[in-house]
Automatic annotation (TrEMBL):
Pathway field: Cofactor biosynthesis; NAD(+) biosynthesis; iminoaspartate from L-aspartate (oxidase route): step 1/1
The protein, known as: L-aspartate oxidase
Catalyzed reaction equations: L-aspartate + O2 = iminosuccinate + H2O2
Family: Belongs to the FAD-dependent oxidoreductase 2 family. NadB subfamily.
UniProt organism field: Cohnella kolymensis
Its job: Catalyzes the oxidation of L-aspartate to iminoaspartate.
């Protein structure tokens, strides 16, 4: 079994810090929730790097909300449920589609400048959306604009204390409640922080895979520490791979937004042939999992490591105006979006599963909340609808604060010291282990899976488990331990689900099995793996 804590510690000897609310992580989830909580609480916000290091910053497409008179919550609900492949929780989706517009209004009040056309909010359409409901900022820099606005407010807010470059090691629990967190400071010393509510906003685990659109900080820390603490983890088999990340020598896997296809871009294999008509009637605007697997199939058929995305039929003016960030980025590598076909390939992008929550963001551990990609609210089901993630973070961030404002203070964590007789960890091999883990996950637990490969992955992962009981000291070691924990959860869940659904595709079970598998996968540190039926839709 994975040990309860990642390090040994004695709470009596730790410096103690008490506040009202502790927010772990940044991004739109952490920043928005911290700002709303600060209206009636003292907030301590902890980031392991800085306010600008999150998946939100790199979100290009936008935020989905019903704004147009030609749209409705019912249309948004239907699109979300279809993309979620039968695993969305209807109540959570209803909350999202009805509260999303209010969340957008609040973002605007906080200073976010969304793009406008003729004095009205500009809306675009993305894959699997039936209406134009995607708000964007600076063309294709929506995430950066949201983070900019919220970060400015947070830094200037006297009720929010910011701890940058601090690493949260574990959650501190007692009597079934989360009392606080164990934090390692930049100088290596440790401190225990306590509050009446702890909110995980730590993002996903894209760094599980060799190729990802996620930043280096996306190492699944929140999911791993919640699992160690005994929280229920749900649907970890559903990893969304973005179909179109830049695939070019010397360039990182930079995201080529869904919105590019939304504006009419087409996909071609290396022979120059458009191919999506062979795979789905919605062509390039099909759900992401279908587009990603179609690209892999074409790459294999043509013995190539990429396909092309082509928007050269649009005017250079439109392309530069709508996609300035992507245009400039590609230009740095000698690729002109207005005249060149851009080489792309799928990359790990978003985790639909995470820490299971109720409709107010509370986990199975009292006073522990989760918001954003780290959570599993039930909104995304087996396959997230494009641009719903930013909406989810705002909507459920507000609901978390509504719940927290009704909580009373609680006693601080007073348990005895925790010791597991740890031996020294091997030095200097963590980066190599991490790379091997990432390559293995791509090969056996990526876009296409089967029992033999998943069994092989699980055997390899179990060989690494003893490391979790060693004396880990560096941030790289802690991150690897968290990635390893998440890898075990993903692989175990993928092995358990003997069907193909949404972002989970089993070559040995290629069909969706509605009577048997229309249920969530539940993982718990002490109780193991199980299933839970989906709420009625």
């Amino acid at each position: 079994m994975i040990p309860r804590y990642i390090v040994d510690f004695d709470p009596v000897k730790l410096r103690r810090v008490e506040t009202d609310v502790v927010v772990i992580g940044a991004g739109i989830a952490g920043l928005y929730t911290a700002l709303k909580a600060s209206e009636t609480n003292r907030v301590l916000m902890i980031t392991k790097k800085s306010l600008f290091d999150s998946n939100t910053r790199y979100a290009q497409g936008g935020i989905a909300a019903v704004i147009s008179e030609e749209d409705s919550p019912d249309f948004h609900r239907e699109d979300t449920l279809i993309a979620g492949a039968g695993l969305c929780d209807a109540a959570a989706v209803d909350v999202l589609v009805h509260d999303g517009p209010k969340g957008v209004e609040q973002l605007i009040k906080f200073g976010t400048h969304f793009d406008e056309e003729d004095g009205r909010l500009a809306l675009t359409q993305e894959g699997a959306h039936s209406r134009r409901r995607i708000l964007h900022a600076n063309g294709d820099a929506t995430g950066f604009e949201i983070v900019r606005a919220l970060a400015e407010k947070a830094v200037a807010n006297p009720a929010i204390e910011l701890w940058d470059d601090h690493f949260v090691l574990d959650l501190l629990t007692e009597e079934g409640e989360c009392r606080g967190a164990l934090v390692q400071k930049p100088d290596g010393s440790r401190v225990a922080v306590f509050g009446k509510a702890i909110i995980l906003c730590s993002g996903g685990s894209g760094q599980l895979y060799r190729y990802t659109t996620n930043p280096e900080v996306a190492t699944g820390d929140g999911i791993a520490m919640a699992y160690r603490a005994g929280a229920v983890i749900r649907d970890m088999e559903f990893i969304q791979f973005h179909p179109t990340s830049l695939c070019y020598p010397g360039a990182p896997r930079f995201l080529i937004s869904e919105a590019v296809r939304g504006e009419g871009a087409i996909l071609r294999n290396i022979r120059g042939e458009r191919f999506m008509e062979k795979y789905h009637p919605q062509l390039e605007l099909a759900p992401r999992d279908i587009v990603a697997r179609a690209i892999i199939s074409e790459m294999e058929a043509t013995k190539s490591t990429y396909v092309y995305i082509d928007i050269t039929h649009e005017t250079p003016e439109l392309i530069r105006h709508r996609f300035p960030t992507i245009y400039e980025y590609c230009l740095n590598y000698g690729l002109d979006l207005t005249s060149d076909w851009i080489p792309v390939a799928p990359a790990a992008h978003y985790m639909m599963g995470g820490v299971n929550t109720d409709l107010h963001g509370e986990t199975s551990i009292r006073r522990l909340f989760a918001c954003g990609e780290v959570s599993s609210t039930g909104v995304h089901g087996a396959n997230r609808l494009a641009s719903n993630s930013l909406s989810e973070a705002v909507v459920f961030g507000q609901r978390i604060v509504d719940r927290i404002n009704g909580l009373t203070a609680q006693p601080a964590f007073v348990s005895d010291k925790y010791s597991d007789d740890r031996e020294a960890a091997p030095r200097g091999a963590i980066l190599e282990r991490r790379l091997k883990l990432q390559k293995m996950m791509v090969r056996y637990a990526g876009l296409r899976r089967n029992k033999a490969g998943l069994m092989k992955a699980m055997e390899e992962l179990k060989r690494h488990i003893p490391l979790l009981r060693m004396n880990l000291r560096s941030r790289e070691e802690f991150e690897f331990a968290n990635l390893l924990t998440c890898a075990v959860l993903v692989t175990e869940a993928a092995l358990n689900r003997e069907e193909s659904r949404g972002a989970h595709y089993r070559e040995d079970y290629p069909e969706r099995d509605e009577p048997v598998w229309r249920k969530h996968t539940i993982l718990h540190r002490e109780h193991g793996i199980g299933e839970e039926r989906v709420g009625n839709v």
